[in-house]
Specification:
single chain; 324 residues; alpha/beta; Quinone Oxidoreductase, Chain A, domain 1; Rossmann fold; seven-stranded mixed beta sheet; 10 helices; 27% strand; NADP; Quin_OxRdtase/zeta-crystal_CS; NAD(P)-bd_dom_sf; zinc ion binding
């Protein structure tokens, strides 16, 4: 019997419910997947709280890895028994099985375990588009990355180091700072006791950085703008501390003709060719051992409520997964 985590109203972690579900057979263009591991992402909490609207009742989660058990009519790129991963699909990844559109799937190489795939598909593709699509970064450039010890952060730091890009990271504790350094972060600012923008200016001889990658949002927005060099770019790709406040166009001018973008992963993986390019580059580096995926938290799917509490408490380091 299949099971899934679902929610019937928005709210705290306690709205998540473990339910028995009927999966059924795949229709045209669809497949049925048996999940082996499910990704846990901070963005999941946005759907649960209602920040990201979803028709209720709803499933939870957008990332998982597993094996195709059945293929519907018209599916030619995948077959029964194929190993696959996905991210950005319709809600419902927090489940033991599901039927979904095959268009969302990414073939998973044998060299990459299911739990690694579930821990890195969203985070890894996010790091990929941030480093390879947003701005023409070159070896020797220095950037600022908030939450450097998080799941995206640790992948980003390793990838950036391979590209010759220096990363000034921020963390909340000295322990997390050491983790970030061990994964390639050049300098780390512990924001609970250091002024971020002031420290960035010290590290860049007063110039600031050309790009800030900010997944935190409300609490770091001001320091991100103040850390940018003239004509610098703020990449606000997350809101872990809450939505960023309204941005004044004049404020951008006064601070040095700054640019701001609020990108979404979906817009960088919607094209199958681009998605394959980013995924293949990511998978090749992981398979070769050049990028290590840090899985420090593992949960049973039935314990989704506890997992969300841990996530929102900020105690997670690296990636988290549900093991099935």
């Amino acid at each position: 019997m299949a099971h899934a985590i679902r929610f019937h109203e928005t709210g705290g972690p306690d709205v998540l419910e473990w339910e028995t579900v009927e999966v059924g057979d795949p229709g045209p263009g669809e497949v049925r997947i048996r999940h082996e591991a499910v990704g846990l992402n901070f963005a999941d909490t946005y759907f649960r709280t209602g920040l990201y609207p979803a028709p209720l009742p709803a499933g939870m989660g957008v990332e998982a890895a597993g094996v195709i058990e059945a293929v519907g009519p018209g599916v030619t790129d995948f077959h029964e028994g194929d190993r696959v991963t996905y991210t950005g699909s319709p809600l419902g990844a927090y489940s033991t099985e599901r039927v979904m559109d095959a268009a969302h799937l990414i073939a998973l190489p044998d060299e990459i375990p299911f739990d690694t795939a579930a821990a890195m598909t969203m985070r890894g593709l996010t790091a990929a588009y941030l480093l390879r699509r947003i701005h023409p970064l070159e070896a020797g450039d220095t950037v600022l990355l908030h939450a450097a010890a998080g799941g995206v952060g640790l992948i980003f730091c390793q990838w950036a180091k391979r590209l010759g890009i220096n990363v000034i990271g921020t963390t909340s504790t000295d322990e997390k700072a050491e983790v970030a350094r061990s994964y390639g972060c050049t300098e780390v600012i512990v924001h609970t006791r250091e002024d971020i923008a002031e420290r960035v200016r010290e590290l860049t001889d007063g110039a600031g950085v050309p790009v800030v990658f900010d997944s935190v949002g409300a609490s770091t927005h001001r320091s991100s703008l103040d850390s940018l060099a003239r004509r610098g770019l703020l990449v606000a790709f997350g809101t872990a501390s809450g939505p960023i406040p309204p941005i004044s166009a004049m404020d951008l001018a006064v601070k040095g003709s700054l640019f701001v973008t609020r990108p979404a992963l979906a817009d960088y993986i919607s094209d199958p060719i681009e998605r394959a390019e980013l995924a293949n580059e990511l998978f090749a580096q992981v398979a070769a051992g050049d990028i290590e995926i840090e899985i420090n938290q593992r949960y049973a799917l039935v314990d989704a409520e506890r997992a969300h509490r841990d996530l929102e408490a900020g105690i997670s380091v690296g990636s988290s997964v549900f093991s099935l």
